[in-house]
Amino acid sequence: MSDEAPWLVVGLGNPGREYAGNRHNVGFMVADLLASRIGGKFGRAKRAQAEAAEGRLGFGGPRLILLKPLTYMNLSGAPVVSLAQFFKVPVANVIAVHDELDVPFGQVRAKLGGGEGGHNGLRSMSKSLATKDYARVRFGIGRPPGRQDPADYVLSDFSAVERKELDFLVDRAADVVEAIVLEGVEWAQNKYHGN
């Protein structure tokens, strides 16, 4: 990991007000919180179909570029690659923040590389970056109840019960992103996976 190179934190989601509260949009929620923490303001990226915000993590700390693709989930990779190339961000400094069906609601997991688990945003990123070896912050949404189609489930809003915990969990996911940037994936796993 380079101390000089910036970090690209990709909040995965779908653009548009109708998707704002969806489980699939939790990446956008975490990116918004991180922007407020670093004093960044999202604006339209000139070089990619995305919104971006920039700032530093702490005084004189690592530079973060936060990205919310505006391409819809299954085409997220193109804006990620455009901005990674423009800002000279190595793949080792790319973090995707996304919803995860295979992690129970209430848990946030850090991971380096691996499969996409059917997540179209990750699939698009892996294809565009030509590697799966980037960090992920997996925000657990759990499996759909009963026979509900997973595609419908991820595009539905969090339940009233889940919304009571949502702010805390978005905050925790932002903490995990910061831990990866400052200390690495393994450190973040050791700190956050036990609780």
Automatic annotation (TrEMBL):
Gene: pth
Cited InterPro entries: Pept_tRNA_hydro, Pept_tRNA_hydro_CS, Pept_tRNA_hydro_sf
Binding annotation for tRNA: 19, 72, 74, 120
Annotated organism of origin: Actinoplanes aureus
Keywords recorded for this protein, A-Z: Cytoplasm, Hydrolase, RNA-binding, tRNA-binding
Enzyme class: hydrolase
One function term, GO molecular function aspect: peptidyl-tRNA hydrolase activity
Residues forming the catalytic site: 24
PROSITE patterns listed in its UniProt record: PEPT_TRNA_HYDROL_1, PEPT_TRNA_HYDROL_2
GO terms, biological process: protein quality control for misfolded or incompletely synthesized proteins; rescue of stalled ribosome
Subcellular location: Cytoplasm
Site entry (Stabilizes the basic form of H active site to accept a proton), positions: 99
Listed EC numbers: 3.1.1.29
Principal location: cytoplasm
Function as written in the Swiss-Prot or TrEMBL entry: Hydrolyzes ribosome-free peptidyl-tRNAs (with 1 or more amino acids incorporated), which drop off the ribosome during protein synthesis, or as a result of ribosome stalling.
GO cellular component: cytoplasm
Name listed for the protein in its UniProt record: Peptidyl-tRNA hydrolase
